[in-house]
Write a structure and sequence with these properties.
Layout: H1 12-27, H2 36-65, H3 74-83, H4 86-116, H5 120-140, H6 142-155, E1 165-170, H7 177-185, E2 202-208, E3 211-217, H8 230-242, E4 245-251, H9 260-275, E5 279-284, E6 301-302, H10 304-318
Parallel strand pairs: 1-3, 1-4, 4-5, 5-6
Antiparallel strand pairs: 2-3
Bound molecules: guanosine-5'-triphosphate (GTP) and magnesium ion (MG).
């Protein structure tokens, strides 16, 4: 799903300045044929046309470039509900639609009035009235345009998720999730020795024969249900709604900054969410002496090779 290339949504002033400056240009046209009354009617009608033709297609483009909510996969609908005000978003689309219809009908109405008018001053007045009504229509939807632009900026950071077998790498910040993604999929996503390196969802792919798997590395969670930020909410949504498999990364070295107890507690919470059967455990940093699992580490964990094999097997079964 492509949320990354939605063009910016301009405000009412932008549309009005553009439309009126084009209309002014049009007003300078020479070589119009007819008597003075015909010429002034044509000139003013042309200005009204150009205003409508400048604004309406640009507003229509807004409606076309945002993914329509009707045909979005459930995951994105939920993501929108989590990160935006869904009803305000729909209201904003409705408002843009309303403005399109209104500007179209105003143009028809005023061109009709101009064509029926015989006095120069009245024609000018009608033009002015049209400008005023178009301006107020657009100004009325300014808050909606603003909200659409805010939404676009948030949507730009939505992950581009494909519909295929999906593995989600999960765990506390700094435990080595992105490092594992890079090892599993040969991606080169950024890793670093501090927490919250990953601030949006990284994706990599494993391909074997005709099987393709999407591996998503989500930002580290802090396991704080009440105060989750947008990114943490996204991470949890990926895990609960998308993942066919979850790789839970344990860092036993202490370098990540989270205790084994905290990491076990988070795993327990995942199990309680009903995800137990989907979880594979990986222990990172086992090359460090302190990172090796001790005798009392009670979880069954997998090496990198075993993980790869399990993922492919599971995806093959799912195919
Ligand atoms: N020695 C060693 N260091 C590792 C290993 N895996 C990760 N690290 C280091 O641990 C640090 C954190 O790794 P990341 O992969 O960025 O961790 P992350 O879980 O993605 O972190 P966030 O994106 O911040 O949540 C980096 O400095 C890595 O180089 C490992 O297997 N061995
Ligand atoms: Mg990371």
């Amino acid at each position: 799903m492509n949320f990354q290339n939605i063009p910016p949504v301009e405000n009412s002033k932008y549309f009005l300045d553009l439309a009126f400056s084009k209309a002014r240009e049009k007003g300078k046209s020479k070589n119009l044929k007819g008597n003075w009354l015909q010429i002034i009617r044509i000139k003013e009608s042309l200005k009204l046309d150009i205003i409508k033709d400048t604004i309406v297609p640009r507003l229509e483009k807004i409606l076309h470039t945002f993914p329509g909510t009707a045909d979005l996969p459930q995951f994105y609908i939920k993501l929108i509900r989590l990160t935006l005000d869904y009803s305000q978003l729909k209201k904003s689309f409705g408002a843009v639609n309303w403005a399109i219809k209104r500007i179209r009908s105003l143009q028809k109405e005023y061109v009709g009035n101009i064509t029926r008018t015989k006095e120069r001053d009245k024609i000018k007045d009608l033009s002015k009235q049209f400008y005023g009504r178009v301006s107020s229509t657009l100004k009325q939807i300014d808050p909606n345009l603003k909200y659409l632009e805010e939404s676009r900026k948030i949507m730009k950071n939505y992950p581009d998720i494909k519909e295929m077998f999906t593995v989600c790498i999960y765990g506390f910040p700094n435990v080595g999730k992105t490092t594992l993604l890079n090892k599993l999929t040969k991606t080169k996503a950024k890793t670093a020795e501090y927490a919250f390196t990953t601030i949006s969802i990284n994706a990599g792919y494993i391909a074997k024969d005709n099987i393709k798997v999407q591996v998503l590395d989500v930002p580290g969670t802090l396991a704080r249900k009440e105060k989750m930020n947008i990114i943490e909410l996204q991470a949890e949504l990926v895990m609960t709604d998308l993942a066919n498999l979850i790789i839970y990364v344990f860092d036993l070295s202490g370098h990540g900054g989270y205790s084994i107890r905290e990491q076990e507690q988070l795993l327990k919470e995942l199990n309680q969410l009903g995800l137990k059967d989907k979880i594979l455990i990986y222990v990172s940093k086992t090359d460090l002496p302190e990172g090796k699992p001790k005798e009392d580490f009670k979880h069954k964990y997998h090496s990198l090779e075993e993980l790869k094999e399990k993922v492919i097997k599971s995806a093959t079964r799912n195919n």
